[in-house]
Amino acid sequence: MTTAQLSAAELQRRLRAAARDVRRDESMARHVQFRVGGPADLLVIPRSAAELQAVMTLLFAEGIQPIVLGLGSNVLIGDRGIRGIVVKVGKGLDHVQIDGATVVAEAGAALPALAMRTAQHGLAGLEFAAGIPGSVGGGVIMNAGAHGHAMDEIVDAVDVLTPEGFRRLTRDEMGFGYRTCVLQQLHWVVASVTLVLRTEDPATIRARLDTWLTHRGATQPIGPPSSGCVFRNPPGDHAGRLIDLAGGKGAATGGARVSTLHANYIINEGGATAADVLTLAEQIRQRVREHSGVTLDLEVKLLGEF
Question: Which of 57, 195, 257, 259 would bridge 103 by S-S if both were Cys, CB 3.0 to 4.6 A apart?
């Protein structure tokens, strides 16, 4: 049966056979850290590696490209939602194995928890991620970083699901760059990541981790819903600095406001819509362009219909 012949009812039936948790018209605001976004036609939540493989094997076979979501940071979902299928990788796909200085983490493992756990084992190199509210899979795809460090420093290999089955990509094959890698173009699905850390005194690691967490708490908004940095840093500068110089701190549209603590964050003060956030982001982009001549590029990923 081809994709064109596959009815919505039959697709749902097959997906429910592959994974226990399949939801129709699910509000995506419940699944992203911005707490905004309309419904997805279908949300599939695999609870094991076997379920993830079964779901993706089905979708690949039918030529269907889903949106894959982790912990829901660094994304903005449109108010009209997503026409299609979202696959959420989280609980049940968050197992971690530690063997010496080698760590194998499933894609759904939370970066902050993994940073804490490796620190306790006397493994250094992941402390920078203790304040990044994302998953291992998303962190690799975005080459997430902080404090001058990023995932590409510690990734050894990435196991992905492709239309042809499992494939292991080496660090060199990942094509890492600033907040990017080849998976942003290939749309394969991260199953697990192998990290190589280094041994160090646990107390020293924890002290460094705590210092960075304290700095984050003092310089970035922690409480209100947000999605991390909105704009990419331009070469040789910081988007937050440029927004601040342009008078963008505190600017607001509807329920969305530029943080007064860190100008590269837009927070949801309550009742914000995706349209509010996107409108405010464009206003800030225009302010910076007029003030400094720099055009900021979005770092947050836009998903769905706006």
Answer: 195
104 by Cβ neighbours in 10 Å (0-12 / 13-18 / 19+) ranks as middle
- Per cent of the chain over pLDDT 90 is 96
CA 92 to centroid of chain Cα atoms: 17
DSSP string, 225-249: -EEEESBPPPTTS-HHHHHHHTT-T
Global confidence as pTM: 0.93
In angstroms, the CA 36 to CA 303 distance is 12
